[in-house]
Amino acid sequence: MKKLKIVLTAIFFGLFVSSLAMAQEKRVTIYSSNPEQSIEFVSKTIEKEIPNIKVNSITGGSGVLMRRIQAEEKNVQADIFWSASYNTVGAFENSFQAYKSPVLDVISDNIRYPGDVFIPANVHVVVIMVNEDQLGNMPAPKNWKDLLDPSWKGKIVVADPANSSTGYTILWGLSKMLTPDEFKQLADNVVISASSSAVQNGVAMGEYAIGLAFEANAYPYVDGGQKEIKLIYPEDGTFITPEYAGLIKGAPGAENAKRAMDALLSQQSQIGLLQNSFRRPSRNDIEVSKYVGLPELKDIKVFATNEKDAANNRADFLKQWSDLVAKNKHEKNAQ
User: Fold this and answer.
1) In the CATH scheme, what is the homologous superfamily, with its name and number, of domain 24-123+242-294?
2) Whose CA, among 118, 205, 241, 300, lies 20 to 30 Å from 52?
3) At the top level of its lineage, which domain of life is listed (predicted)?
4) What are phi and psi of 290, to 5 degrees?
């Protein structure tokens, strides 16, 4: 009987301790469109930096997750969304709350979101990805206008801007840099892929000589040892676009959600993401070239574009692009 009492006491004590631990543990839920590898790294970083925090994550396409957040406004389920570009997040501002994170002190003003409704999580740089084995007698391009040569027709691939924020960022930028006639020539030369991943894969496998891509998506092939793959930062300038994270309005994690956001954007976290997925940090206190074989942002010539205009004029631009591609195809068939 005495032994039974001791056993029962131990069980009840164990349940009490377990309940106490659960009560002390706080949960933060992140909706993310990022790769599992990156989400796992960030989750572990947050849990390490903040005692008694447990991170839950739900993944999906950025547009799908944004619509889910919007649908859950009366019963908020998540704390943080991470991450997407201006032309995606801009339409959902009302579902998020501004947050003056201390991290903003090391983020340059030119990539901050108006009113800090969203915080830059990383910066994408557009590059010309080249497979030197597929160039033939053509020299590697040095600037965007080099791609207008008719000899490149069918050898350049870019993602469909209607389906890919990467493709949209690139083609929107080029529509501002080039004259209308030059942009038409570019449209005539390129092949359109359904997704941005098909661009990098196509160039890496030798289906195309050139791909228009984000640096973080193209560099893994260089890092993986494909010596024929080179990244070119055009001499006439390229385009950058931040990806943003946001604190969801009415986040159930409250102050812990803010702490988790700060940890997501911490120096340790951003260096780790740079090393494991080549995401260029949004922080300006990290020397990128110390960790990976990429140039510093200050050494890249950037052609400035207006992210707000790109978001507000998305429908008109996609119609313009669709008409241009259709017209070029019609002219080609008529010849």
Assistant:
1) Periplasmic binding protein-like II (3.40.190.10)
2) 118
3) Bacteria
4) -75, -20
